[in-house]
Amino acid sequence: MTSAAPAPLAIETTGLTKRFSKQLAVQGLDLAVPRGSVFGFLGPNGSGKTTTIRMLLGLTRATSGDIRLLDGDMPGQLAAVLPRVGALVEGPAFYPFLTGRQNLHRLDTADRSAPTATRSERVAAALDRVGLSHAADKKAHAYSLGMKQRLGIANALLMPRDLLVLDEPSNGLDPQGTREVRSLIGSLADDGTTVFVSSHLLSEIEQMCSHAAVMSAGRLVTQGTLEELRAAGRQRVSVTTPDVDAALGVLGRLGLDPEPRGHGEHVTGVAADVPADGPAAEIVAKALVDAGVRLRGFEVAGASLEDRFVDLTGEGFDVAG
Ligand SMILES: Nc1ncnc2c1ncn2[C@@H]1O[C@H](COP(=O)(O)OP(=O)(O)OP(=O)(O)O)[C@@H](O)[C@H]1O
C-alpha cells in the first residue's frame, strides 16, 4: 500500500535487493518515502533494515534494483546527494578524551563540503539543537548513552539537511534517553526535514512517525500513513446493553456476525469483528441508537497497529518503549 496522495518522494526504491552469499537480506523492496514525512522503518531484528539503510547511503552496493535519494540516483549521484543527507548509522566513533564540541569539530573537518569559516558557529548550533550546549565542553567519555546518541545526531546536523537517516537511534538507551531522542526527532521534523528512522519498537514508531513501512524477513509487508495502516486492519466492536436481541439484529443487518457477550443469565451485551471494509464505528453506534438500543457502553478495540502488523507478518513486535 502506498500513500494515497502522490507526494514528491525523498526516498524511492524499486526492486531493491541485497544478497549475501547464501542469504537474501533484502528482497524486491519498493519503498516510497514522501518529503516532509517522519517515516518509520519498522521490523524485527534481522529483517533487513540496516542493510537497506546501508544501500540507501551508498555504504554497500545493491545486488539489484534502483534507488533515488532526493531525486538523485544512488550510488551514481552520491557525491551530489550525500551532502544533503545527515545520517546516524551504527553510531559515529567519538574520541572519549575529546569534548563533545571538539569531537564535532573533528568530524566537520573531515567533511569537504563543510565551510571552515562557519565551523565554530555550526558546531555550537548543532549542539544547541540537540540540547547538549551545557555539556559541550565535557569529555565524551562522561556522556550518557543518550547524550552520545544526541551527539551523533548533532554530527548529522552540522550542515543543513533535506533528509536525515537514523538507524535505531534509541537502541540501547534507557527510557529517559529514548524520550530525549524521540522528542528531538519530532522537533527536527517540525523544521520540514524528512526523517527516515528505523526501529524494532512499534511504540516508538507510533509515537513519532507520520508514515511507516514494515519489514519482515527481507520483504516489505506494508507502507503508508499511520492512519492508512490502522484503517486497513480489522476492529472489534463491543456493546454493553440490556437490549441484547435488538443489538444482535442491528449488527446482523449491518453485515456483521455478532455474538452475545457473557454467559447464561449474565449476558451483558454483544460483540462483533468489523473487517477493514466494514461499517465505521460511528455508523454502528448510530444504527444501534436509531434502533432504540440502550447503550451502557460502546468500545472499539483492536484498531492498534500491533494487531495489524501481527496479522501481516505473523510475528509479534516489541511494544515496550
Ligand atoms: N555482511 C553480511 N554478511 C552476511 N549476512 C549479513 C550481513 N549483514 C547482514 N546480514 C544478514 O542479513 C539479514 C538482515 O540483516 P540486517 O542487519 O539488515 O537486519 P536489521 O533489520 O537491521 O536487524 P538489526 O536490527 O538486528 O540490525 C540478517 O539475517 C543478517 O544476518
From TrEMBL:
<feature type="domain" description="ABC transporter">
    <location>
        <begin position="11"/>
        <end position="242"/>
    </location>
</feature>
<dbReference type="Pfam" id="PF00005">
    <property type="entry name" value="ABC_tran"/>
</dbReference>
<dbReference type="GO" id="GO:0016887">
    <property type="term" value="F:ATP hydrolysis activity"/>
</dbReference>
<protein>
    <submittedName>
        <fullName>ABC-2 type transport system ATP-binding protein</fullName>
    </submittedName>
</protein>
<dbReference type="InterPro" id="IPR003439">
    <property type="entry name" value="ABC_transporter-like_ATP-bd"/>
</dbReference>
<keyword id="KW-0813">Transport</keyword>
<dbReference type="InterPro" id="IPR017871">
    <property type="entry name" value="ABC_transporter-like_CS"/>
</dbReference>
<dbReference type="InterPro" id="IPR027417">
    <property type="entry name" value="P-loop_NTPase"/>
</dbReference>
<comment type="similarity">
    <text>Belongs to the ABC transporter superfamily.</text>
</comment>
<dbReference type="InterPro" id="IPR003593">
    <property type="entry name" value="AAA+_ATPase"/>
</dbReference>
<dbReference type="GO" id="GO:0005524">
    <property type="term" value="F:ATP binding"/>
</dbReference>
<keyword id="KW-0547">Nucleotide-binding</keyword>
<keyword id="KW-0067">ATP-binding</keyword>
